[in-house]
Every structure is written in C-alpha cells, then in structure tokens.
Design brief:
The protein is mainly α and 345 residues long. Among the domains are: 48 residues, no CATH class; 75 residues, no CATH class; 81 residues, no CATH class. Helix content is 73%, strand content 2%. The chain has 18 helices and 2 strands. It has a two-stranded antiparallel sheet. A hairpin with a 5-residue loop joins strand 1 and strand 2. Helix 3 crosses helix 5 and helix 9 crosses helix 10. The longest helix has 53 residues. It starts with 11 loop residues before the first helix and ends with a helix. The N terminus is likely disordered.
Length: 345
C-alpha cells in the first residue's frame, strides 16, 4: 500500500471529480480553460481530439481546419508541421492579424482557406502586412485561380512584393501576375491600375515588351505618361512593334525620356505607321520616314563602298599595274637582247 499514490487514498468522489475536471480542461482547449472549469458537464461531454495543441481560442478554428486538411492519414505530418516547423506560431499570428483586420468573420475566412489549401494559405497571408485586403482580393478572384494566387503570395520575397501590390491595387495585381508570371507584377508595381489594365489586354510577348520600359514610363511626368499609355491603348500591336524596332536599332538606349516622348506624342501617327526615331549628331531624337531611312542607308552603303575602294581596291590595282609593267619591260628587254645576239657581226 505504500507504493500507491496518495491521490488514490483520498475520497473516491473527490478523485472522480478531479479527474473529470482535468479531462474537461484538456478536451476543451478550443473553447478555453475558463469555460472548461466552469462547466458542470462530466468529462465524457468533452471529447479529446486525436492531436491536442494548446492554442488560443482565437486560432482554434484555424487549427481544426489544418487538421482537416491533413486528414486522419496525415496526423503525423500535421504534428510535424504544428510542433516542429513553426506552424503553431504561424497559425496564431495569422489568426490574430485576421481578427484585428476583420474580426471573427476574417478568422473564419482564414480557416476556410487553411482547410482547402493547407499551410500555403497561412504562409501567403503571413507574407502580407495586412490580412484583410488579401482576403478580399482572393474573394474577388474566380475560384479556379485562388490556389495559384495563394502559391504566388506564399513565395518568399516575391510573394511579399505581390502582397504589397495587392494591398494597394486589389485583385488586379493578382490577376496580372497570374496571366503574365514575372511580368504582370512589374507592370502593376510601376504603372498601377494602368499597368493592370494593359496586362489584361496584352498577350505574353506584348506584356514582356512593355514591361521592359515600365520603370522608364513611370518616371515620366504624368501628362507624358498618360499620353504614351493612351497611344498603347489605341493601337497596342503597332506600338509594341515600334518598341521592338527601337530596341533593336538602339540597344541599351532608353526610349521614354522626356525628349523622346515629346517627339512620339507630337507625331503618333507616323510612329504607328512605321516611321522610326533616330538621334542626330547632337543626340536629339528626330522622326524619319522609311524612305528617308532607306536613303540614308544607301548613302551609308555608298560611303562604305567608296572607303573600301579607296583603301583596298586602288592599292591592289596599282600594285598589279606596277607588276605587269615591270614584267613587260623585262620581257621586252630580254627579247631585244636575244635579237641582238642573233644578228651577225
């Protein structure tokens, strides 16, 4: 009897009451210890879950959603995520931020996303400085795009940039990046709503071409920037073709400076019609027609031919002429010498 714990030697009714209260506290983690202590129900009324983690009541619905996502077969994986991979702290942090932004309704939205998309949903929301706008943007997306958007939002530093853009511009930022991966975000971040609108109407090649100039466009005075964007909306295809021609003819040179943009906006029909911008001897941009460009090309070709003729062909000609002249003189001299020897003295 000395080895029996003293607890078993107490009043049996007191022992049963204490055991029931302890079981109630464990089983009622999700509703808080105070509620468990105050409950008159026996321990059987509080079923103990398969995996119990002492999380605040605020995050209980999110915890249940995560457990549901992993399922019974993934109990070990869920345990690993919650206890060793920082999942519990992440879950509590996201739930607290959601409650701050939108109360219990926002927390329930977090739980719904966690139940469907698992830890990626929590990582995506944790990547944002504010959970509420991200939840709203995800709500605005078509259902079949939400999973892809969450994957992008959860992607480290790039996801944080996308989250910042989403908070500022809403679901347009997500839509643009989903349509043009790696490019849509650049357009929205640099050009805002205008960039999102252009991204929505462009194919991938066009978006890439415009994204190369997005930062330069963003630096223009508002009037010039709006003017260029208006031309792009008016005829996206031909404007993008012009961007490509300019980049090919002027590698490394910025197109959208104040001076060059002034020229473009002064003669947009010529630009869209296929004319080009070149730079004069002083570096000033001017518009030239195709015929003028061809004429300069021919002139340049003629100059090149003249240079080659003067530098290479003429010296070769003179050398050959000297050789043949010398050969002719020697040959004639040899003949005369032979004739002289054959004449009888």
């Amino acid at each position: 009897m000395n080895t029996v714990p003293s607890l078993l030697r107490c009043n049996p009714k007191h022992f049963l009451r204490t055991t029931a209260m302890a079981a109630a506290m464990i089983g009622a983690t999700a509703i808080g210890p105070a509620a468990a202590l105050a409950s008159p129900l026996p321990a059987a009324a509080f079923p103990v879950p398969a995996l119990v983690y002492p999380v605040p009541a605020l995050a209980s619905s999110v915890a249940k959603a995560i457990m549901k996502y992993f399922g019974k077969e993934g109990a070990g994986e869920a345990s690993e995520y919650l206890t060793r991979q920082g999942g519990k702290e992440l879950m509590e942090r996201v739930a607290a931020n959601a409650a701050r932004d939108g109360g219990d309704q926002a927390v329930q939205k977090v739980a719904a996303l966690a139940g469907k998309y698992g830890p990626d949903a929590l990582a995506a929301l944790d990547n944002a400085p504010s959970v509420g706008p991200i939840l709203k943007a995800l709500d605005d997306l078509p259902a079949d795009q939400v999973g892809a958007a969450i994957a992008k939002l959860s992607a480290g530093a790039t996801g944080r940039e996308l989250a910042d853009a989403t908070i500022q511009f809403g679901s347009k930022a997500l839509t643009s990046e989903l349509k043009h991966p790696g490019v849509g975000l650049v357009m929205v971040r640099s050009l805002g709503d205008d960039g999102a609108e252009l991204a929505s109407r462009m194919n991938s090649d066009q978006a890439i071409a415009v994204a190369r100039h997005a930062e330069d466009l963003a630096k223009l005075p508002p009037t010039q920037r709006d003017g260029v964007l208006a031309v792009m909306r008016q005829d996206t295809t031909r404007m993008v073709q012009f961007l490509g021609r300019f980049a090919e003819a002027n590698p490394g040179k910025s197109l959208f400076t104040v001076a060059t943009t002034t020229v473009i906006l002064a003669q947009p029909d010529r630009i869209l019609g296929g004319d080009e911008i070149i730079f004069d001897a002083d570096g000033n941009p001017i518009v030239v027609s195709k015929s003028g460009l061809a004429g300069r090309t021919l002139a340049a070709g003629g100059s090149a031919v003249a240079h080659v003729s003067e530098s290479y062909i003429r010296p070769l000609y003179l050398t050959a002429l000297a050789f043949f002249t010398t050969f002719a003189v020697l040959w004639a001299g040899l003949k005369l010498w032979q004739i002289h020897r054959t004449v009888p003295k």
